[in-house]
Amino acid sequence: MSTNDQPTDARARLRQHFLGDKSLHIKKWDDLYIEDFLPWDKGFVNPAFVDLLHDRKELFPNTEGKRGKALVPGCGKGYDVLLLDEHGYDAYGLESSKNALIAAKEIEKQAKATGQYIGRGDVNWVDGDFFDDGWLIEVQGEKKFDLIYDYTFLSALPPSLRPAWSKRFKDLLAPGGRIVCVEFPTYKPHSTGGPPWALPPKVYMAHLSRPGQELPYAEESGLQESELGDASPDGLQCIAHFQPKRTHNGGYDEQGKITDWVSVWAHPSE
User: Fold this and answer.
1) Any idea what the CATH number is for the domain that residue 129 is in?
2) How are beta strands 90-95 and 69-73 bridged, if at all?
3) What's the rounded Cα separation, in Å, for the pair 113 and 108?
4) Is the separation of the CB atoms in 222 and 246 below 8 Å?
5) Does residue 260 contact residue 243 with C-beta atoms inside 8 Å?
6) Phi and psi based region of residue 235 (left: phi greater than 0; alpha: psi -120 to 50; beta: remaining)
7) What is the pTM (predicted TM-score) of this model?
8) Dihedral, CA atoms, 215, 220, 226, 232, nearest 10 degrees?
9) How many CB atoms are located within 10 Å of the residue 182 CB?
10) Residue-number span of the structural domain to which 220 is assigned
């Protein structure tokens, strides 16, 4: 397809871009950074995450005076990583796109030069595939995290990777740690495809409470809740689930109502 033949709608263009061999998806994401076609990039942290860290401190673990470790998989240009650094975390921004990391490092440099942020932890930019272990060599100390943040990362993954995504999140979460998901897009029908893939709250609830399990999906209607069965005994526990007071503009419907949700997860009985 020539440039002139590409769909004008951003989501249609994304869907077209990712048709075909799923093994090429990492390269295809990097290609979008080269083209500077980044419709998901708003240029700043989602306000829902800002508010959560500022207003709901009781949801997060007490690291007993030590700096916690935070992970943002699929960090893009790294706005969330810098925010977590400001909150005192040693923050790791993981990306499979080398060009995204080049942009993230430049944004960090400019932000420091202009005094826009002063970090209290350490920032670490890591090139790697979330589902492989090779990048963990870059992680200092124990290879687990006190906070893992997902916003638009899961929506970028084909639904077939959701069992692996949930298991990986569970395995990388430190005892006492928290997973934060800003759930988006919640309003799309499953049949519309992606990215971004439809992610109603039931998808997060089903997969994170059953990490690693293959769950039943129908081509048109998506997740089949009536066929799920019980959650896993070692599944993650949702300790908070609510709609934020504000979010990025893509999380509002035509009437101005927020469609995003925020969920916070922990290991069982924590």
Assistant:
1) 3.40.50.150
2) parallel
3) 9
4) no
5) yes
6) beta
7) 0.92
8) 20
9) 22
10) 8-266
Nearest-5° angle of CA 115, CA 119, CA 123? 120
Average pLDDT over residues 52-75: 89
Task: Give domain status of residue 3, yes or no.
Answer: no
Assign residue 93 a region: left if phi > 0, alpha if psi is -120 to 50, beta otherwise? beta
> Among 202, 199, 212, 210, which residue's Cα sits nearest to residue 237?
210
Residue with tokens 């005892």: 175
Region of poorest pLDDT, from 114-123, 204-213, 225-234: 114-123
Number of folded domains in the chain?
A: 1
Has residue 95 been placed in a domain?
A: yes
